[in-house]
Amino acid sequence: MGLEAWYMDSSDDDQRKPHRLNPNVSVSLDELRKLGVFHWKLNADVYETDPELEQIRKEQGYSYMDIITIHKDTLPNYEEKVKVFYEEHLHLDDEIRYILDGQAYFDVRDEKDRWIRIAMEKGDLITLPAGIYHRFTLDETNYVKAMRLFVGEPVWKAYNRPADDFHIRQKYVASLQGS
Ligand code: KMT
Ligand code: NI
Protein backbone atom coordinates (compact mmCIF):
# COMPACT_ATOMS: atom_id res chain seq x y z
CA MET A 1 0.00 0.00 0.00
CA GLY A 2 2.06 2.81 1.38
CA LEU A 3 5.60 3.62 1.39
CA GLU A 4 7.89 1.80 3.77
CA ALA A 5 9.87 3.89 6.25
CA TRP A 6 11.91 3.05 9.34
CA TYR A 7 14.26 4.47 11.94
CA MET A 8 17.92 4.14 11.00
CA ASP A 9 20.78 2.61 12.89
CA SER A 10 23.86 4.76 13.43
CA SER A 11 26.46 2.57 11.73
CA ASP A 12 28.93 4.09 9.26
CA ASP A 13 28.45 1.20 6.89
CA ASP A 14 27.65 1.77 3.18
CA GLN A 15 24.94 4.44 2.81
CA ARG A 16 23.20 2.31 0.18
CA LYS A 17 22.35 -0.40 2.70
CA PRO A 18 18.97 -0.27 4.49
CA HIS A 19 20.34 0.63 7.92
CA ARG A 20 17.35 -0.72 9.81
CA LEU A 21 17.38 -1.02 13.56
CA ASN A 22 17.29 -4.55 14.93
CA PRO A 23 14.45 -5.18 15.59
CA ASN A 24 13.07 -2.94 12.89
CA VAL A 25 11.11 0.17 13.97
CA SER A 26 8.83 1.23 11.16
CA VAL A 27 7.39 4.69 10.62
CA SER A 28 3.84 5.16 9.38
CA LEU A 29 2.54 7.56 6.77
CA ASP A 30 0.72 9.33 9.61
CA GLU A 31 3.98 9.97 11.43
CA LEU A 32 5.51 11.24 8.19
CA ARG A 33 2.54 13.54 7.68
CA LYS A 34 3.16 15.08 11.09
CA LEU A 35 6.63 15.97 9.88
CA GLY A 36 5.10 17.62 6.82
CA VAL A 37 6.06 14.78 4.46
CA PHE A 38 3.33 13.79 2.01
CA HIS A 39 3.03 10.87 -0.36
CA TRP A 40 1.02 9.83 -3.39
CA LYS A 41 1.12 6.52 -5.24
CA LEU A 42 0.74 6.87 -8.99
CA ASN A 43 1.05 4.70 -12.09
CA ALA A 44 4.52 5.55 -13.35
CA ASP A 45 4.01 3.53 -16.54
CA VAL A 46 1.75 6.31 -17.82
CA TYR A 47 3.47 9.35 -16.34
CA GLU A 48 3.56 11.13 -19.69
CA THR A 49 -0.23 11.20 -20.00
CA ASP A 50 -1.43 10.58 -16.44
CA PRO A 51 -4.50 12.66 -15.51
CA GLU A 52 -3.88 11.92 -11.80
CA LEU A 53 -0.43 13.46 -12.00
CA GLU A 54 -1.87 16.36 -13.99
CA GLN A 55 -4.41 17.01 -11.26
CA ILE A 56 -1.79 16.98 -8.50
CA ARG A 57 0.43 19.34 -10.48
CA LYS A 58 -2.50 21.70 -11.03
CA GLU A 59 -3.73 21.62 -7.45
CA GLN A 60 -0.28 22.02 -5.93
CA GLY A 61 1.01 24.48 -8.52
CA TYR A 62 3.86 22.24 -9.66
CA SER A 63 4.40 24.09 -12.93
CA TYR A 64 8.02 23.01 -13.44
CA MET A 65 9.22 19.48 -14.04
CA ASP A 66 12.28 17.71 -15.35
CA ILE A 67 13.64 14.17 -15.20
CA ILE A 68 16.91 13.05 -13.68
CA THR A 69 18.44 9.61 -14.16
CA ILE A 70 20.92 8.79 -11.45
CA HIS A 71 23.25 6.07 -12.65
CA LYS A 72 26.99 6.07 -13.14
CA ASP A 73 26.72 5.98 -16.95
CA THR A 74 24.08 8.69 -17.35
CA LEU A 75 24.71 11.37 -14.75
CA PRO A 76 27.64 13.75 -15.29
CA ASN A 77 29.82 13.96 -12.16
CA TYR A 78 27.98 10.96 -10.77
CA GLU A 79 30.31 10.23 -7.85
CA GLU A 80 30.40 13.81 -6.67
CA LYS A 81 26.64 14.27 -6.97
CA VAL A 82 25.94 11.09 -5.06
CA LYS A 83 28.15 12.44 -2.29
CA VAL A 84 26.49 15.87 -2.28
CA PHE A 85 22.97 14.42 -2.25
CA TYR A 86 23.86 12.51 0.93
CA GLU A 87 25.02 15.56 2.85
CA GLU A 88 22.41 16.65 5.36
CA HIS A 89 20.76 19.80 4.02
CA LEU A 90 17.61 21.85 3.70
CA HIS A 91 16.01 23.95 0.98
CA LEU A 92 13.99 27.15 1.09
CA ASP A 93 11.26 25.42 -0.93
CA ASP A 94 9.54 22.04 -0.90
CA GLU A 95 11.42 19.14 -2.50
CA ILE A 96 9.07 17.14 -4.71
CA ARG A 97 10.17 13.90 -6.33
CA TYR A 98 8.33 11.25 -8.31
CA ILE A 99 10.04 7.92 -8.91
CA LEU A 100 9.53 6.81 -12.51
CA ASP A 101 11.83 3.79 -12.41
CA GLY A 102 14.23 2.10 -10.02
CA GLN A 103 14.35 2.92 -6.33
CA ALA A 104 16.19 5.04 -3.78
CA TYR A 105 16.09 6.35 -0.22
CA PHE A 106 15.15 9.74 1.18
CA ASP A 107 16.20 10.25 4.79
CA VAL A 108 14.48 12.88 6.92
CA ARG A 109 15.00 13.99 10.50
CA ASP A 110 12.09 13.55 12.88
CA GLU A 111 11.11 16.08 15.58
CA LYS A 112 13.69 14.56 17.93
CA ASP A 113 16.41 14.70 15.29
CA ARG A 114 16.41 10.97 14.58
CA TRP A 115 16.92 9.75 11.02
CA ILE A 116 13.97 8.16 9.26
CA ARG A 117 14.72 6.29 6.03
CA ILE A 118 11.98 6.36 3.39
CA ALA A 119 12.16 3.65 0.71
CA MET A 120 10.96 5.10 -2.58
CA GLU A 121 9.95 2.86 -5.43
CA LYS A 122 8.48 3.27 -8.88
CA GLY A 123 5.20 5.19 -8.58
CA ASP A 124 6.00 6.96 -5.30
CA LEU A 125 5.66 10.73 -5.30
CA ILE A 126 6.87 12.49 -2.18
CA THR A 127 7.03 16.05 -0.91
CA LEU A 128 9.52 17.16 1.71
CA PRO A 129 8.66 20.47 3.33
CA ALA A 130 10.89 23.52 3.04
CA GLY A 131 13.16 23.68 6.08
CA ILE A 132 13.28 19.96 6.91
CA TYR A 133 16.77 18.45 7.22
CA HIS A 134 17.11 15.57 4.78
CA ARG A 135 19.42 13.69 2.41
CA PHE A 136 19.16 11.30 -0.51
CA THR A 137 20.91 8.12 -1.57
CA LEU A 138 20.67 5.40 -4.14
CA ASP A 139 20.20 1.93 -2.69
CA GLU A 140 22.19 -1.15 -3.63
CA THR A 141 20.58 -1.27 -7.10
CA ASN A 142 22.46 1.94 -7.96
CA TYR A 143 19.81 3.32 -10.28
CA VAL A 144 16.83 5.62 -10.13
CA LYS A 145 14.91 7.73 -12.62
CA ALA A 146 12.94 10.52 -10.98
CA MET A 147 10.79 13.46 -11.96
CA ARG A 148 11.65 16.68 -10.12
CA LEU A 149 8.70 18.99 -9.64
CA PHE A 150 8.72 22.59 -8.49
CA VAL A 151 6.38 25.50 -7.86
CA GLY A 152 7.53 28.06 -10.41
CA GLU A 153 11.15 28.47 -11.45
CA PRO A 154 13.28 25.79 -9.76
CA VAL A 155 15.84 26.70 -7.11
CA TRP A 156 18.14 23.75 -6.39
CA LYS A 157 20.29 25.49 -3.81
CA ALA A 158 20.91 23.28 -0.78
CA TYR A 159 22.05 24.60 2.58
CA ASN A 160 24.04 22.05 4.49
CA ARG A 161 23.48 21.65 8.19
CA PRO A 162 23.83 23.73 10.31
CA ALA A 163 21.28 26.03 8.66
CA ASP A 164 19.25 26.80 11.78
CA ASP A 165 19.21 30.59 11.34
CA PHE A 166 17.09 30.54 8.20
CA HIS A 167 13.59 31.85 8.69
CA ILE A 168 12.24 28.83 6.81
CA ARG A 169 13.97 26.50 9.28
CA GLN A 170 12.47 28.32 12.25
CA LYS A 171 9.09 28.30 10.57
CA TYR A 172 9.38 24.55 9.95
CA VAL A 173 10.43 23.80 13.54
CA ALA A 174 7.52 25.92 14.81
CA SER A 175 5.12 23.95 12.59
CA LEU A 176 6.11 20.75 14.41
CA GLN A 177 4.90 22.06 17.76
CA GLY A 178 1.29 22.25 16.67
CA SER A 179 1.28 18.80 15.04
C1 KMT B 1 18.27 16.42 -3.52
O1 KMT B 1 17.90 17.59 -3.42
O2 KMT B 1 18.87 15.85 -2.61
C2 KMT B 1 17.98 15.69 -4.75
O3 KMT B 1 17.56 16.27 -5.69
C3 KMT B 1 18.24 14.24 -4.79
C4 KMT B 1 18.20 13.63 -6.14
S1 KMT B 1 16.60 13.64 -6.92
C5 KMT B 1 16.01 11.98 -6.94
NI1 NI C 1 17.27 18.13 -0.97
Describe this structure in words.
- The protein is α+β, with helices and mostly antiparallel strands and 179 residues long.
- The chain is globular, with a radius of gyration of 16 Å.
- The strands form 2 sheets. Strands 1, 2, 3, 5, 6, 7, 8 and 9 form an 8-stranded antiparallel beta sheet that branches.
- The chain is 20% helix and 32% strand.
- It has helices spanning 29-34, 51-60, 78-85, 167-177; strands spanning 4-7, 38-41, 64-70, 89-90, 95-109, 115-121, 124-128, 134-138, 144-150, 159-160.
- Residues 68, 85, 95, 97, 136, 146, 148, 158 line the site of 4-(methylsulfanyl)-2-oxobutanoic acid.
- It catalyses: 1,2-dihydroxy-5-(methylsulfanyl)pent-1-en-3-one + O2 = 4-methylsulfanyl-2-oxobutanoate + formate + 2 H(+); 1,2-dihydroxy-5-(methylsulfanyl)pent-1-en-3-one + O2 = 3-(methylsulfanyl)propanoate + CO + formate + 2 H(+).
Question: What are the salient characteristics of this protein?
Answer:
single chain; 179 residues; alpha+beta; Jelly Rolls; eight-stranded antiparallel sheet; two-stranded antiparallel sheet; binds 4-(methylsulfanyl)-2-oxobutanoic acid; binds nickel (II) ion
In short:
With 179 residues, the chain is of the alpha+beta class. It is 20% helix and 32% strand.
Strand pairing plus helix content: what structural class?
alpha+beta
Shape: globular
**What fold name stands as the CATH topology?**
Jelly Rolls
The helix content is: 10-25%
How much β-strand is present in the residues? 25-35%
The value of Rg in angstroms is 16 Å
> Number of folding domains?
1
What letter string, H or E per element, gives the SSE order?
EHEHEHEEEEEEEH
**SS elements, strand count:** 10
CATH superfamily: Jelly Rolls
Bound molecules: 4-(methylsulfanyl)-2-oxobutanoic acid, nickel (II) ion
Low-confidence runs: none
CATH architecture descriptor text: Sandwich
What is the CA-CA span between the terminal residues?
Answer: 24 Å
Average pLDDT taken over every residue:
97
The largest sheet, given as strand count, sense and whether it forms a barrel, is: 8 strands, antiparallel
